[in-house]
What we know:
Elements (H helix, E strand, L loop, with lengths): L5 H5 L7 H15 L8 H18 L2 H10 L13 H5 L9 H9 L18 E7 L1 H6 L1 E12 L15 E2 L8 E8 L2 E8 L8 E2 L12 E12 L8 E4 L15 E7 L6 E3 L2 E9 H6 L1 E7 L2 E7 L7 E5 L15 E8 L6 H13 L8 H14 L2
Parallel strand pairs: 1-9, 11-15
Antiparallel strand pairs: 2-7, 3-6, 4-5, 8-9, 10-11, 12-13, 14-15
Helix pairs in contact: 2-3
The structure holds zinc ion (2 copies).
Amino acid sequence: MANKDYYQILGVKKDANQDEIKKAFRKLALKYHPDANPDNKEEAEKKFKEIGEAYSILSDPDKKARYDQYGTADTADFGAGFDFRDFYGEGTSDFGSFSDIFESFFGGATHRTSRRDRARKGADLRYNMEITLEEAAFGAEKKIEVPVWETCTTCKGSGAAPGTSKRTCPDCKGTGEIRVTQNTFLGQSISIQTCPRCRGEGQIIEDPCKTCQGTGKVKKRKSINVKILAGVDSGHRLRLAGLGEPGENGGPAGDLFIVIYVKKHPLFKRSGSDLYYDHKISLPKAVLGGETTVPTLEGKVKMKIPAGTQSDTVFRLRGKGTYILGSKNRGDEHVKVTVEIPKKLNTQAKKLIYELAQEMGEDIEKIGEKNFFEKVKDSFSKR
Ligand SMILES: [Zn+2]
Ligand SMILES: [Zn+2]
């Protein structure tokens, strides 16, 4: 390998300090970056590598000292030599995007820009769907309206008014990117930004199509049928691939996510595929047993109450819950029975309760109003 004058390559004096070396390198790297020289890519790349090599030696105090002492440019002498990947992260034979490289050069001072030709997936859309408990339990088919973007028929998608066409953006000369130089206390910072005039398109529309306002697309509403599976619950998501926003530069469309909300039911509480229902029964029915009618999602059913049923006893109606998602089986309905104590009774009914109490061996003196009044009377007479 022929001896190279690294100082000459970077255009700095032999006694240049690290700041000067760095500055010179930045300037040249910008100038010779292959992406900045699309017409002369090969030559620029060669030069760019040479600059990188020079910088890798001169920016390293050890390597620089040896270079200064021996005057040799043979990178093999310097150990690992110069590898572009050390510098540019994942850059291999292909250079990353122009902005990516400057990000590593200047740290946070640059702004990452998106290349205009990069295919991007469209944004996902979310649709909140409210359904009834019955629909969730047994499944349903719902018709919903979703936005769809169609190619504008007026301009055939170009965005330019009929009879006109796009032209190259004068601000960025069609590259879609502009360089912004800023003076900061750290020195000059150069960032590559998406051209604001053409938004990175590289082309501008002078006479936009009136139908689509120059976007080339028109938003329409389309009604689609959505199949709700039996057993879905609040928070479940349904993904409809490709029904989101359209992609850019040939990228795929996003997805439409249908998020399920099951409305509160006036009678039932739900937990998984099980339902819970609170049911009141009369005192005689609880004592003597019998039959009662309870609601289910499919109408009323008869339920047996055994004699001597206590309050808060839970009966289970097997298979009367919701379907289990993805299964042919169903959960259960749990009926919690509360014994209703009558609040108002006529004299005859009260008499019968007294008789019942007596029959059951209760101390009649300690039951009811009579006892209560006697106590009050006693307390008065004692004074
Ligand atoms: Zn149009
Ligand atoms: Zn532009």
